[in-house]
UniProtKB/TrEMBL annotation:
UniProt keyword list: Aminotransferase, Transferase
Xref: InterPro entries: DUF1989 (IPR018959), GcvT/YgfZ/DmdA (IPR028896), GcvT/YgfZ_C (IPR029043), GcvT_C (IPR013977), GCVT_N (IPR006222), TrmE/GcvT-like (IPR027266)
Pfam families: DUF1989, GCV_T, GCV_T_C
MF GO annotations: transaminase activity
Protein name stated in the entry: DUF1989 domain-containing protein
Annotated organism of origin: Reinekea thalattae
Organism superkingdom: Bacteria
Signal peptide: none
Record domain DUF1989: where: 180-348
Domain spans labelled Aminomethyltransferase C-terminal: 687-768
This protein's record includes keyword Transferase: yes
Keyword flag Thylakoid: no
Coiled coil: none
Gene3D superfamilies with a match to the protein in the record: Probable tRNA modification gtpase trme, domain 1
Amino acid sequence: MREEQQSDGDVSELYNFSVDRPVDKQLFRIDAQKALALTLNKGDQLKLDSPDQAQICEILVLDEQGQSVPEALSQQAVSVAEQTLKQLQGKGASAKQLQQQFDAWGIEESHLNKALQFSGEGSVFLEVAEPVRVIFIAAGEDMLVEQHTPVGEVHLTVQYASPWSEYLPEPLAEVKEEIRIPRETARSYEVKAGEWIQIIDVSGKQCSDFLAFDRAELVAGNELGLDSTATRSVMSRSTPQPGLFSRFLASDMQSMVEVVQDTVGRHDSFLMACNPKYYEDSGYFGHKSCTDNFNRVLSFYDIAPRAAWPAINFFFNTGVEPCGTVFMDEPWSRAGDYVLLRATRDLVCASSACPDDIDPANGWNPTDIHVRIYDAENEFPRASAHRLLPEELPRMTKTTGFHKPISEMTKQLSEYRGYWVASEYEGWGAKAEYLACRERVAMIDLSPLRKFEVTGPDAEAFLQYVLTRNVRRLAIGEIAYSAICFDTGGMIDDGTVFRMNEQAFRWVCGDPYTGIWMRNKAREKNYRVNIRNSTDQLHNVAVQGPESRNLLREIIWSAECQPSMDSLAWFHFLIGRIGGPEGIPVMVSRTGYTGELGFEVWCHPDEAELVWAAIWSAGEKYGIAPLGFDALDMLRIEAGLIFAEHEFCAETNPFEAGIGFTVPLKTKEDEFVGRQAIARQAPESRKKLVGLILDQDEPAEHGDQVFQGRYPVGIITSATPSPLLGKQIALCRVAPEFAQAGTELEVGKLDGHQKRLSATVTTLPFYDPDRTRVRS
């Protein structure tokens, strides 16, 4: 390997290219209880919106000397930033995090005396009169479990007076090295084991191929680089995927880089970097290619050139058809999107800014790529991006308030609905966790459930309209399980509605989009109702099993006006405390997802670790175990409980999903969304959700077709081995003609015909069919 890298040639001219996608508008999100700082120029126009029409935004405006100049943004009266001060006076994590932001930006308490106020109602439009630094604060106090005033996010749109062509996000930490890769070129660089590599698409829709080699092996004269076959084999994927593996390996079967953060979610893992043959076959002779650029920059390390380099293709939008055909389209990446990697050994890396302008690979217009290197001493959380709406900024995976004690017990974490949850626990395993729940008591973190506070004079009428259940029948302190449907009758979600008081409800569901849909319906029908997302103010664990009541009885205190743990009825809740009248505020509901006697304990995230510790400590004498999502799946299938994208979707109505009892067509006189479509369906024609007991030990899988004779009559929605029955079981949606208990069917494997698994239809649930245990 040569000791010195040579210049890539004169690339200065490449910085002066014209960009065909100038950007004059940008979206920002001010997250709840956090702040956003922007430098703005004269003529920039701002639009502020509160999604729930209730979140206050307090705005500080500073000039270049750090003096408050609110008049540079608005002529409205200024006031003290009261919500910000109240939050800062708190003792929780949100106060500390906000203070850390202020310290980093040099914001002092005196600045808070001259704030502009945005009430949250409607949209506010502002224009910048001179260059300023603006601090936007979505502030508010922490919400108690019995309150309905969560702090929400605020959306900001900036219309720039001078369009820009690229966006570099704020560094994740102090940057060790900045590397610019001009369009149509590549660069090589070195990183040490443990260091972090952030690859940024500065203009959006720009692919960047990535190569890495073991530096020590290069010094020894050996070429050991990323290997697609090793990576796919270890990750159990035979073809390129429209996403990233968690780690990428060399041919020695050891990791080279780990993927830690990804704000896009759509890439290609190991197709070829563009190469001369591709362009020549397309009629573009002599066109620049990533392969040629890599050969040039890697020659400095005596790495032999190739006709085509297999590479990780960041931001390259590919997919694979069921037949195996690979297709591509414009990238999903937007300006500022990035991938964060961590080197697991000393590496020589190469990154490109792809020159492809003959197809949609780079949006028809190649632009720059930017790379940042961070020291190994930094720590960044693992996170991937998702979006609730196509146009919004990415939302990165979060940890729940219970993450610390959980992460001390397991490394088997997976992403669910934007949060990290435990799949199973080290030293237990799914079957042991399952048995603990069936025989003793177990605890699981269900904080990813979305919570929405529905309040106002029309709260009851609104929920009566959007939920299938008859909400008017609910008493204060009572809970109902309900579906929520589209106009077509297809299910958006299922969940539980808590009646907190006469004009306040709490809707708990799985899909975060449900809240957006409900707000749209409220505006469409002019309901006087507020719908506020309280998910990040209300985390919860489920305590399930025959000993759950005995455990919680020892630690839950409730006032005389509230039910006790002994008197708490099924599908009711109480407001209490852990550890006596001065203890941790909690809500306890007699609900669960296991088919066992069980409860859920709800608290503020700041109290979550104390809640976990109190329940765990009290549960040790009962043989408490942690419960992961793998064991939960076994429990809920045995109990015949449904799961999104398995038993129901937007094309499945509640009857077909097996929860027709949530749709009282005869006794609920009020109109509700989806009623007419559901009523038009002849009951005799509805497919049925039934149970299947397989006659052999081979498992069925979600999506397997179910046959009688040659033709399919149903589909497996969920399946699991049942420790209770000692057999494989499944939930199956089947044509009504074959839904009778005792009917013999077959689950198709391979092509559905070459291999069949015999099975018998049974009623649901498999476990405790009369639900005596959950009602006990």
